[in-house]
Amino acid sequence: MSYPWPAGARAAVCFTIDFDGESPHLWRTRNQPGEAVGELEQRRYGPRRGLANLLSMMDNLDLRATVFVPGWIADRYPWQVREIAERGHELALHGWCHEPPTTLDRSDLARTLGRAADTLAGISGVRPAGYRSPSWDMNQTIFGVLHELGIGYDSSLMGDDRPYLVDGLVEVPVDWATDDAPYYRYVGGDPRPPATAPALRGGWAAEIEAAGRHGSLCMITVHPWLSGRPARVDALESLLAPVVADPALCTATAGALAEHHRERAGGSGISLDGFDISLDDLGRPDHD
C-alpha cells in the first residue's frame, strides 16, 4: 500500500539534529567523572562551531529540521537554542541530560522531561510536541509519561519505514543506517577509524534513492559535534540540495509528518502491552 505523503509526494526525507553536546558523556560518567577532558572538548565542538555550520547549511538550502535537545544543553546553551527556534526549526525533547528512559523510574521520567519541556518553552516560547529517546533506548513506561506531558509524537523506534501509531503516539521512525554516529563517532581506542564524508554521502544517497522508489521515509539524524565539521557539512549540503529541489520528495519536519499522519493517514496502530515472553512461550527442548 502506498503511503499518503503531504502534497502528493512519493516519499519523505526528514532531516533531524540531536543537539546533545557533552551531555551523553556527563550522564555516562556521572558516578565516576574523573579528570579527562578529551571527549568533553570533542563534544563541545557541537555548540561552539558545529551547530552554527549546520544552521548555515540549512539556510542555504531553505531546509527546516527538527532539533532534539536535552534540557541540560538548553539550560547551558540558551543562545544556541534560541537561534535554532528563530531560524524556523522545530525544537523537541531529548531527555534532561541524555539519560535513557530505561535508567529512570516513572516519577523521575516525568520530573526530568517536564523540566526539560519547561526549559525549551521558556527559551523558544513554544512547548515541544515531540520526543526522541537518548540512544533510542525506549521502554513501555515512557509512553504514558509523554501523554501526560502533552507530547504527540516520538521518534525513537524502528518498527516501520513510514509513520505509524504506538500506544496512541505517532511514531516517526528512525534508522541506524542514516544516523551519523555509526560513521563518524570516534573517541579514541577504537581500531576502526571514522568514515570519510564521501563514504557517508554515498551510503545516504543510496538510502534516499531507495526511499524514493519504495515510497518510504528516510530519517536522517546528525549530531553537531560529528557532522558539524566543515567537510562533513559540505557533503551534507551536496547530498540534500537535490532532495530539497525535488517536489516528489517531502522534506517536512518530524512534527509536521506526525501531524499529517494523525490527520490524514490514520490507522489503528499497535499497543506495547502484552508482549512479555516467558521461556515456556519460546519452547523448551525435551530432556529424558
Automatic annotation (TrEMBL):
UniProt xrefs under PROSITE patterns: NODB (PS51677)
GO molecular function per UniProt: hydrolase activity, acting on carbon-nitrogen (but not peptide) bonds
Gene Ontology process terms (BP): carbohydrate metabolic process
Domain NodB homology, chain residue ranges per copy: 35-252
Domain of life: Bacteria
Pfam families: Polysacc_deac_1
Name of the protein in question: Polysaccharide deacetylase
Native organism: Actinomadura darangshiensis
Lineage, broadest ranks: Bacteria, Bacillati, Actinomycetota, Actinomycetes, Streptosporangiales
